[in-house]
Design brief:
Elements (H helix, E strand, L loop, with lengths): L6 H20 L7 H17 L17 H15 L21 H10 L51
Length: 164
């Protein structure tokens, strides 16, 4: 089930994988996890056997040896092996908090201003009542409550198909 992969891209991917494994073995950065070491070995084996490390063409470009996610993970492992480390997931500061310093007096004022105000009491519950509107009864703007039944007419032969 070998795919058509450019030989240069295949060799480049193998070179990157082997370089990341060698750097990790040198111990410049933190040691690779078991999963990361297995990932490097498995992807290298797939490229050597099939020419590509992924089978689904929707996961990467034509002629590439690694899928997009595999390339991203390889870059991450390479950075870790070099000792540069990744950024990881960090909490972002809210917008506008870049140049503001901590001012306890201002923070206390803001907290006092944001204190919830007591909610107003809801109006007393009363039973709804119908109120007649003067002047609208004769203008036609009011729909009558009871309508006359529609007058139905029977059309002879209306349900038959032609030729029957």
């Amino acid at each position: 089930m070998a795919r058509e992969v450019d030989e240069r891209k295949k060799r480049a991917a193998l070179r990157k994988l082997r370089r990341a494994a060698e750097l990790a073995a040198q111990g410049l950065g933190p040691p690779l996890s078991d999963w990361e070491a297995a990932f490097l070995e498995e992807v290298e084996g797939r490229i050597e056997k099939f020419g590509s490390a992924f089978a689904d063409p929707m996961k990467g470009a034509d002629g590439e040896a690694l899928s997009g996610l595999q390339q991203a993970k390889l870059r991450e492992i390479d950075k870790k092996a070099r000792g540069k480390g990744g950024k990881g997931l960090k909490a972002r500061k809210p917008m506008g908090a870049k140049h503001r310093g901590h001012r306890p007096d201002r923070d206390a004022d803001i907290a006092a201003a944001r204190a919830p105000e007591p909610a107003p009491e809801p109006p007393a519950r009363t039973r709804p009542a119908l109120v007649p509107v003067n002047g609208l009864a004769g203008t036609g703007n009011v729909t009558p409550l009871r309508r006359a039944k529609p007058r139905l007419t029977v059309i002879e032969g209306g349900g038959q198909k032609p030729g029957n």
